[in-house]
Amino acid sequence: MFTGIIEAVGTVRAIEPRGGDVRLSIATGKLDLGDVKLGDSIATNGVCLTAVVLPGDGFAADVSTETLTRSTLKSLKVGDRVNLEKALMPQSRLGGHIVSGHVDGIGEVVSRDVSARAVLFRIKAPDELAKYIAEKGSITTDGISLTVNGLRGAEFDLTIVPHTVQETNIAGWQPGTKVNLEVDVIARYLERLLLGEKAADAGHQSGVTMAFLAENGFLK
Question: Are 122 and 156 in contact (CB under 8 A)?
Protein backbone atom coordinates (compact mmCIF):
# COMPACT_ATOMS: atom_id res chain seq x y z
CA MET A 1 0.00 0.00 0.00
CA PHE A 2 1.02 3.61 -0.63
CA THR A 3 -0.10 7.12 0.30
CA GLY A 4 0.29 8.98 -3.00
CA ILE A 5 2.90 11.32 -1.50
CA ILE A 6 5.81 11.24 -3.94
CA GLU A 7 9.22 10.75 -2.33
CA ALA A 8 11.46 11.29 -5.36
CA VAL A 9 11.53 11.61 -9.12
CA GLY A 10 13.57 8.92 -10.83
CA THR A 11 14.78 8.37 -14.38
CA VAL A 12 14.28 5.40 -16.68
CA ARG A 13 17.72 3.86 -17.09
CA ALA A 14 16.93 0.88 -19.32
CA ILE A 15 14.01 -1.02 -20.84
CA GLU A 16 14.87 -4.63 -21.64
CA PRO A 17 12.38 -6.83 -23.55
CA ARG A 18 12.12 -10.27 -21.96
CA GLY A 19 9.94 -12.96 -23.50
CA GLY A 20 6.99 -10.73 -24.29
CA ASP A 21 7.18 -8.45 -21.26
CA VAL A 22 9.97 -6.13 -20.07
CA ARG A 23 12.46 -5.52 -17.30
CA LEU A 24 12.45 -1.85 -16.33
CA SER A 25 15.51 -0.29 -14.66
CA ILE A 26 15.09 2.97 -12.75
CA ALA A 27 17.73 5.35 -11.37
CA THR A 28 16.06 6.53 -8.16
CA GLY A 29 17.86 9.83 -7.56
CA LYS A 30 17.36 11.08 -3.98
CA LEU A 31 15.11 8.17 -2.94
CA ASP A 32 16.63 6.48 0.13
CA LEU A 33 16.95 2.76 -0.67
CA GLY A 34 18.63 1.91 2.63
CA ASP A 35 15.53 0.12 3.93
CA VAL A 36 14.51 -1.49 0.62
CA LYS A 37 15.04 -5.23 0.14
CA LEU A 38 14.63 -7.50 -2.86
CA GLY A 39 10.92 -8.21 -3.25
CA ASP A 40 9.82 -4.87 -1.80
CA SER A 41 7.34 -2.70 -3.67
CA ILE A 42 8.03 0.73 -5.18
CA ALA A 43 5.25 2.69 -6.87
CA THR A 44 6.46 4.01 -10.23
CA ASN A 45 4.11 6.57 -11.78
CA GLY A 46 1.48 4.98 -9.58
CA VAL A 47 2.18 1.39 -10.61
CA CYS A 48 3.20 -1.03 -7.85
CA LEU A 49 6.42 -2.73 -9.00
CA THR A 50 8.51 -5.37 -7.23
CA ALA A 51 12.25 -4.72 -6.95
CA VAL A 52 14.12 -7.73 -8.34
CA VAL A 53 17.54 -6.08 -8.66
CA LEU A 54 19.01 -3.43 -6.33
CA PRO A 55 22.30 -2.06 -7.70
CA GLY A 56 22.49 0.60 -4.97
CA ASP A 57 21.45 3.68 -6.93
CA GLY A 58 18.19 2.33 -8.30
CA PHE A 59 16.17 -0.80 -8.87
CA ALA A 60 14.95 -3.08 -11.64
CA ALA A 61 11.48 -4.63 -11.88
CA ASP A 62 9.79 -7.04 -14.24
CA VAL A 63 6.66 -5.55 -15.81
CA SER A 64 4.01 -8.02 -16.95
CA THR A 65 1.98 -7.76 -20.15
CA GLU A 66 -1.09 -7.07 -17.95
CA THR A 67 0.60 -4.02 -16.43
CA LEU A 68 1.88 -2.85 -19.80
CA THR A 69 -1.65 -3.08 -21.21
CA ARG A 70 -3.33 -1.19 -18.36
CA SER A 71 -0.80 1.60 -17.72
CA THR A 72 1.42 4.16 -19.41
CA LEU A 73 4.55 2.14 -18.59
CA LYS A 74 4.38 0.70 -22.09
CA SER A 75 5.10 4.21 -23.46
CA LEU A 76 8.14 4.95 -21.29
CA LYS A 77 11.46 5.77 -22.95
CA VAL A 78 14.99 5.80 -21.58
CA GLY A 79 15.52 9.15 -19.86
CA ASP A 80 11.84 9.69 -18.94
CA ARG A 81 11.16 11.01 -15.42
CA VAL A 82 8.93 8.93 -13.15
CA ASN A 83 7.32 9.53 -9.75
CA LEU A 84 8.54 7.18 -7.01
CA GLU A 85 7.15 6.15 -3.61
CA LYS A 86 8.21 3.32 -1.35
CA ALA A 87 5.54 1.12 0.22
CA LEU A 88 3.72 2.43 3.27
CA MET A 89 5.10 1.33 6.65
CA PRO A 90 2.78 0.88 9.69
CA GLN A 91 4.28 3.90 11.50
CA SER A 92 4.15 6.22 8.46
CA ARG A 93 1.93 9.30 8.32
CA LEU A 94 -0.92 8.84 5.84
CA GLY A 95 -0.40 12.23 4.21
CA GLY A 96 -2.42 11.45 1.08
CA HIS A 97 -4.98 8.64 0.90
CA ILE A 98 -4.91 4.83 0.67
CA VAL A 99 -3.34 3.89 -2.67
CA SER A 100 -2.95 0.30 -3.89
CA GLY A 101 -0.66 0.91 -6.88
CA HIS A 102 -3.13 -0.90 -9.16
CA VAL A 103 -3.96 1.30 -12.15
CA ASP A 104 -7.65 1.49 -13.09
CA GLY A 105 -7.19 3.29 -16.40
CA ILE A 106 -5.29 5.84 -18.43
CA GLY A 107 -6.32 9.49 -18.47
CA GLU A 108 -5.29 12.30 -20.79
CA VAL A 109 -4.41 15.90 -19.97
CA VAL A 110 -6.97 18.09 -21.73
CA SER A 111 -5.73 21.53 -20.70
CA ARG A 112 -3.10 23.32 -18.63
CA ASP A 113 -3.52 26.83 -17.22
CA VAL A 114 -2.05 29.03 -14.50
CA SER A 115 -3.78 30.67 -11.52
CA ALA A 116 -1.40 32.81 -9.44
CA ARG A 117 1.35 30.34 -8.46
CA ALA A 118 -0.77 27.22 -8.98
CA VAL A 119 -1.06 25.17 -12.16
CA LEU A 120 -4.54 24.08 -13.22
CA PHE A 121 -5.11 20.87 -15.15
CA ARG A 122 -8.17 19.25 -16.65
CA ILE A 123 -7.89 15.48 -17.08
CA LYS A 124 -10.15 13.23 -19.18
CA ALA A 125 -10.73 9.88 -17.49
CA PRO A 126 -12.09 6.78 -19.25
CA ASP A 127 -15.90 6.95 -19.21
CA GLU A 128 -16.17 3.78 -17.10
CA LEU A 129 -14.24 5.44 -14.25
CA ALA A 130 -16.35 8.60 -14.08
CA LYS A 131 -18.73 7.14 -11.47
CA TYR A 132 -15.86 6.66 -9.01
CA ILE A 133 -14.65 10.29 -9.16
CA ALA A 134 -16.19 12.80 -6.74
CA GLU A 135 -15.67 16.55 -6.35
CA LYS A 136 -13.33 17.20 -3.39
CA GLY A 137 -12.58 13.47 -3.36
CA SER A 138 -9.17 11.90 -3.91
CA ILE A 139 -7.70 10.46 -7.08
CA THR A 140 -4.24 9.07 -7.78
CA THR A 141 -2.70 10.50 -10.94
CA ASP A 142 0.70 9.09 -11.97
CA GLY A 143 1.02 7.95 -8.36
CA ILE A 144 0.25 11.37 -6.84
CA SER A 145 -2.57 11.73 -4.32
CA LEU A 146 -4.59 14.70 -5.60
CA THR A 147 -7.90 16.40 -4.81
CA VAL A 148 -10.59 16.70 -7.46
CA ASN A 149 -11.53 20.40 -7.61
CA GLY A 150 -14.21 20.18 -10.28
CA LEU A 151 -16.10 17.68 -12.42
CA ARG A 152 -17.61 17.80 -15.91
CA GLY A 153 -18.74 14.32 -16.91
CA ALA A 154 -15.61 12.17 -17.17
CA GLU A 155 -13.34 15.23 -17.01
CA PHE A 156 -11.98 16.43 -13.67
CA ASP A 157 -9.99 19.49 -12.58
CA LEU A 158 -6.82 19.59 -10.48
CA THR A 159 -5.14 22.56 -8.79
CA ILE A 160 -1.44 21.86 -8.27
CA VAL A 161 0.60 23.90 -5.79
CA PRO A 162 4.25 24.85 -6.58
CA HIS A 163 5.77 22.25 -4.21
CA THR A 164 3.98 19.38 -5.98
CA VAL A 165 5.03 20.70 -9.40
CA GLN A 166 8.64 20.87 -8.22
CA GLU A 167 8.76 17.46 -6.53
CA THR A 168 6.98 15.33 -9.18
CA ASN A 169 6.86 14.86 -12.95
CA ILE A 170 3.87 17.23 -13.22
CA ALA A 171 6.08 20.00 -14.61
CA GLY A 172 6.23 18.04 -17.87
CA TRP A 173 2.48 17.50 -18.26
CA GLN A 174 1.00 19.15 -21.34
CA PRO A 175 -2.28 18.69 -23.24
CA GLY A 176 -2.14 15.18 -24.70
CA THR A 177 0.03 13.72 -21.92
CA LYS A 178 -1.22 10.29 -20.82
CA VAL A 179 -1.37 9.61 -17.05
CA ASN A 180 -2.10 6.57 -14.89
CA LEU A 181 -5.30 6.83 -12.83
CA GLU A 182 -6.30 4.94 -9.69
CA VAL A 183 -9.68 5.78 -8.20
CA ASP A 184 -10.35 5.86 -4.46
CA VAL A 185 -10.40 2.26 -3.22
CA ILE A 186 -13.31 3.05 -0.88
CA ALA A 187 -15.52 3.76 -3.90
CA ARG A 188 -14.52 0.40 -5.38
CA TYR A 189 -15.44 -1.54 -2.24
CA LEU A 190 -18.67 0.42 -1.77
CA GLU A 191 -19.79 -0.55 -5.27
CA ARG A 192 -19.13 -4.22 -4.52
CA LEU A 193 -20.88 -4.07 -1.15
CA LEU A 194 -23.99 -2.56 -2.69
CA LEU A 195 -24.36 -5.67 -4.84
CA GLY A 196 -24.90 -7.74 -1.70
CA GLU A 197 -25.64 -11.40 -2.45
CA LYS A 198 -25.72 -10.67 -6.19
CA ALA A 199 -21.94 -10.21 -6.07
CA ALA A 200 -21.65 -14.03 -6.04
CA ASP A 201 -23.67 -14.34 -9.25
CA ALA A 202 -21.17 -14.76 -12.07
CA GLY A 203 -23.81 -13.78 -14.59
CA HIS A 204 -24.61 -10.50 -12.88
CA GLN A 205 -23.14 -7.33 -14.35
CA SER A 206 -20.49 -6.08 -11.90
CA GLY A 207 -21.36 -2.39 -12.06
CA VAL A 208 -23.93 -0.63 -9.88
CA THR A 209 -26.43 1.09 -12.18
CA MET A 210 -29.29 3.50 -11.49
CA ALA A 211 -31.69 0.66 -12.31
CA PHE A 212 -29.99 -1.58 -9.74
CA LEU A 213 -30.20 1.14 -7.06
CA ALA A 214 -33.90 1.72 -7.75
CA GLU A 215 -34.66 -2.03 -7.77
CA ASN A 216 -33.04 -2.47 -4.37
CA GLY A 217 -34.66 0.51 -2.66
CA PHE A 218 -31.75 2.96 -2.72
CA LEU A 219 -33.73 5.43 -4.85
CA LYS A 220 -37.23 6.74 -4.24
Answer: yes
Per the domain annotation, does 99 fall within a domain?
no
Give the integer Cα–Cα distance in Å for 83 and 56: 18
Tell me how far apart the alpha carbons of residues 162 and 116 are, in angstroms, rounded to a whole number.
10
Question: What's the pTM?
Answer: 0.84
pLDDT in tens, 157-183: 999 999 999 999 999 999 999 999 999
Per the structure, the complete domain to which residue 165 belongs is given by 105-183
The b-or-e profile of 172-183 (16+ CB within 10 A means b, else e) is ebeeebebbbbb
- The strand pair at 138-141 and 118-124 is best described as unpaired
**CA distance linking residue 72 with residue 141, whole number of Å:** 11
Contact residues for 59 (Cβ-Cβ < 8 A; gap 6+)? 25, 26, 28, 33, 36, 42, 51, 52, 53
CATH number of the CATH domain containing 74: 2.40.30.20
pLDDT digits (tens, 9 = 90+) for 2-34: 989 999 999 999 999 998 899 999 999 999 999
| Tally of domains within the chain | 3
User: Which regions of the chain does DSSP assign to beta strands (E)?
Assistant: 8-18, 21-27, 41-44, 47-50, 58-63, 81-86, 105-115, 118-124, 138-141, 144-147, 150-152, 155-160, 178-183
CA distance 133 to 9: 26
